[in-house]
Amino acid sequence: MRAIDAGLLTCHECHQLNPIQTEQGKQFCSRCGGLVHARQPNSLTRTWALLLTAAVLYIPANLLPIMTVNSLGKGQSDTIMSGVIELVNYGMLPIAAVVFVASILVPTFKLVGIALLLYSVQRHQPMSPRQRVLMYRFIEWIGRWSMLDIFVIAILVALVNFGSLASIVPGYGAMAFASVVVLTMLAALTFDPRLIWDNTDPDDDHE
Q: Which of 12, 101, 145, 163 has an alpha carbon 20 to 30 Å from 109's alpha carbon atom?
């Protein structure tokens, strides 16, 4: 049974259960004072907007150079994929695998996963609530690893700065990639997971 079926509303800020007060136009949480909604207003619309923006930026994030290494007056620019290939050529297979998973697979899975979650909720596709919840929790969990490339670039830019001898400069691809990561994280936050349980048959809750 959903909380709303029992006459309760969950505060999105502190998760306090509040009895529904039908006589009031707006209802506030009894614990933190936050505005309480049965469902977050325009949750699907905002999540779709953030997701589509991230999908558009995902293209330059992979095509534009993520950083440029200048050494003795010569510069070499690398995209995410070319950087992975360089690591493989140098025999750094474990590092290449970590970068590939964190910078290619994880963002792709987040984009596809959130899109499937939104589509299944809107179109009432045959996916059990448990499958949707597991997908949502996994998307939230892997989001923290997407910033690995940005952290590495930030450290390298700070450490490798020897003027004309050697320096590392972040590229436009890094800014686009960071935007993709932030937008997908915001998309996961704006999605109201309570929508997963709406329009669900009671028998499906136990699948």
A: 12
Name the 3-class secondary structure at 9.
strand
**How sure is the predictor about 207, in pLDDT bands with cuts at 50, 70 and 90?**
very low
Q: Whole-angstrom Cα distance, residue 144 to residue 124? A: 29
Task: Report yes or no: 82 and 185 within 8 Å, Cβ to Cβ.
Answer: no
Tokens at 92, concatenated? 């750094």
* Nearest of 37, 81, 36 to residue 59 by alpha carbon: 81
pLDDT: is 78 or 147 the higher one? Answer: 78
The pLDDT tens digits of the residues spanning 16-63 come to 887 777 666 678 887 787 777 767 778 889 999 999 999 999 999 889
Q: What residue spans define the domains of the chain?
A: 1-38, 41-206
Indicate if the alpha-carbon torsion angle 145, 64, 188, 150 is positive or negative. positive
Sort residue 33 into left (φ over 0), alpha (ψ -120 to 50) or beta. left
Q: How many residues does the chain have?
A: 207
What is the C-alpha to C-alpha distance for residues 87 and 73, in angstroms, rounded to an integer? Answer: 22
